[in-house]
Amino acid sequence: MDITVNILLTIATAATPLLIAAIGELVVERSGVLNLGVEGMMIMGAVGGFGASYLTGSPWIGLLAAIAMGAVFSLLFAVMTLSLATNQVATGLSLTLLGLGLSGMMGTSFVGQPGERLPNIDIPGLTSIPVIGRLLFGQDPIFYISIALTAAVMWFLFKTRTGLTLRSIGDSHTSAHALGIKVIRYRYLAVIFGGACAGLAGGHLSLVYTPQWVENMSAGRGWIALALVVFASWRPWRVLAGAYIFGAVWIGQLHAQAFGIPVPSQFLSSLPYLATVVVLVLISRNKRLTMMNTPASLGQPFVPDR
Questions:
Q1: Cα distance between residue 207 and residue 201, in whole Å
Q2: Domain boundaries in the chain?
Q3: Which is nearest to 17 in space by CA: 193, 270, 257, 206?
Q4: What distance in Å separates the CA atoms of residue 158 and residue 167, rounded to the nearest whole number?
């Protein structure tokens, strides 16, 4: 039973950064913007969070720094794609490469240094409940933030007037502009929110998952988060389910190697990415499901009439 609980705990820990980054990207894409720079924003959040916590001795300050780093990096993306109308795909890829290189340079002095880990929440009387106590009441704070964030985004997109406006921009920015909606303003806010989520996801990696700085420690999680949005058909609750499925695959390959299963370790390490490719292929075969929820203006530049 202890082994099962420990495996479930590690799955939740592995799924949390995927969920946060994917939820942020979902909001961005619902506004009609395609941000392929999630990986770069996540790794910048990781180095920013670790650096701030190491220098101040406070993981909470590190958490705020991770969010700020992701938001600032996303603001650069927003200025280039929304104000200067650059190609969103090329800009996102460029910022990912920039983030990977810049984070490596910034984190040179942090390699091998001990990190400050965010403490798990301990609720007396509840955390000690057999099996479910540690799963539900003894997790790290970012785990609860990820669940609350998913519920909040679901409520915002489908139960509020502002969420409806955001979705209408993603479906037809020209029509929204004709109705007097400030398309660029809404998209700026959505992109910054998505960047802050990516930064928070990166902070989880360096402050909870492995409280240390390792170059390229995001290890492709930003790309998996992008695939999760498509996998979920732009629905928040499906992102939640998908994140935990991918988290289980991620942890499953680690435990398979630990148990000595006679399969090449290189193949086991590739399983999360292989699962991503398989899922995208299966989804692409169902054109009706894909087109039904895809924002019609996704990836299209918008330049308001002057």
A1: 10
A2: 2-293
A3: 206
A4: 9
168 CB-near residues (< 8 Å, 6+ apart): 175, 176, 181
Q: What angle do helix axes 2-30 and 161-171 make, rounded to 10 degrees?
A: 70
Q: Report pLDDT digits (tens) over 77-117.
A: 999 999 998 999 999 999 999 999 999 999 998 988 888 88
> Domain 2-293 belongs to what architecture?
Orthogonal Bundle (1.10)
Would you state the structure tokens that stand for residue 158, as one six-digit string? Answer: 């489908």
If phi > 0 it is left, if psi is from -120 to 50 it is alpha, else beta; for residue 153 that is alpha
Plot region of 131 (φ>0 → left; ψ -120 to 50 → alpha; else → beta): left
What value does the mean pLDDT take over residues 114-134? 81
To which residue do tokens 């009439």 refer? 305
Q: Could you tell me what percent of the chain has a pLDDT over 90? A: 56
Q: What end-to-end distance do the CA atoms of the chain give, in Å?
A: 65
| SS3 of residue 232 by DSSP | coil
Average model confidence (pLDDT) across the chain: 88
- The pLDDT value recorded for residue 258 is 65
Place of tokens 């921009």: 169
Give the Cα separation of 37 and 226 in Å (integer). Answer: 10
